[in-house]
Task: structure prediction
Amino acid sequence: MATDTIFEFVGIGLPAAAARGINQQIKLRKNGKIVEYLSGADRDMTRPSARGFEFTISGSDIWAPPFAGMWIGEVVTVHYPGQFVEPIARPQTRPEVPGTLFFIDAESRVVEADDPAAAWRVYNPLIVARLLDWELDEDDWGALVTWSSSYREALGYVAP
Result:
């Protein structure tokens, strides 16, 4: 059933009318720190192998996403609804949700991947993550469900 959104749990799905009005926030996962010496020089004490994301997706609609039976710590593959924009000169950060990858030039015009003017890669990432929390708030009279779910990228897992 069409949901008119990129957001989905791979292998679980998403009911129609469960994901309109989505908001998403993404941030870097805590991973060590940057140390500043007395001389003013900085040293990166983070671990490249632990670089990842934490994110929250929330929304309100007629139905809730299929959270029943999803527990804290469960690993899920999420079609993240926000877009990543990366320079094509750098490696792609995460795999893309099928059908979401496109390229733009310096003027933000959509171009083909092999166009020499292509400067940026734009896509919705496919992120394997652990569920940290979810909550639902249902307004029976208003026929509206407001929901929120939080995740931490599960490093070392591969997207199906």
